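Limitations

Structures in this collection are predictions, not experimental determinations, and the ligand pose is part of the prediction. Treat each record accordingly. The example that follows, with coenzyme A as the small molecule, is included so readers can see exactly what is and is not provided: the inputs are given verbatim, and the output is the predicted complex.
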Amino acid sequence: MRTRRAKISDVAAIHSLVAHYAAQGLLLPRAAEEIRAHIGHFIVQEHGHRVVSCLSLESYGADLAEIRSIAVDAENRRQGLGARLIAFALDQARRRGIARVFAVTHAPQFFERQGFAAAARQSLTEKIERDCRTCPQQRNCKLVAVIATVIPERMMLPILSESAAPAPAC
Ligand SMILES: CC(C)(COP(=O)(O)OP(=O)(O)OC[C@H]1O[C@@H](n2cnc3c(N)ncnc32)[C@H](O)[C@@H]1OP(=O)(O)O)[C@@H](O)C(=O)NCCC(=O)NCCS
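Predicted complex:
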């Protein structure tokens, strides 16, 4: 199993992985053209020549990035691939000097096992501005924000705990 940055030739496989779980309501759908346009954000794992997992790491300025579209092929789940993808993404973030990485997820326990902690979405103003304010699900959103500190000495923004803040609108 090899973990690496994605290439244009991986677009179809990434699209298929994300579409599989989007159909189950576990991930947001991503169009093949959108994946192609942002292929530089994606990390994949391949087994032989087959792409079996993917993840997207998207920056919000110099200090913060988001993990999106994390998916492991159904046959390969619960074998440590997701954990390795996250470790690779956090290492990439560290190399780029990004201090914190977050995700907005229905599976916070998975992220917590990889060192993330629950966070209030109000602390992620960039995410709220970019996605949540225009999301049709914002009133019913059950997703949870989790965040990992990658470079502690470069942390600039406070992180509010869920208990310290009112429930977010989105
Ligand atoms: C969530 C997902 C990426 C995890 O990948 P994975 O390869 O199956 O996970 P791993 O085998 O690396 O598991 C790492 C740890 O997280 C735990 N874990 C895995 N999936 C979990 C989940 N959905 N909820 C809670 N814990 C989970 C595992 O038990 C394991 O714990 P351990 O280290 O104590 O053994 C994968 O199951 C998947 O593709 N799910 C469908 C798409 C999805 O839901 N994506 C996340 C949306 S935000």
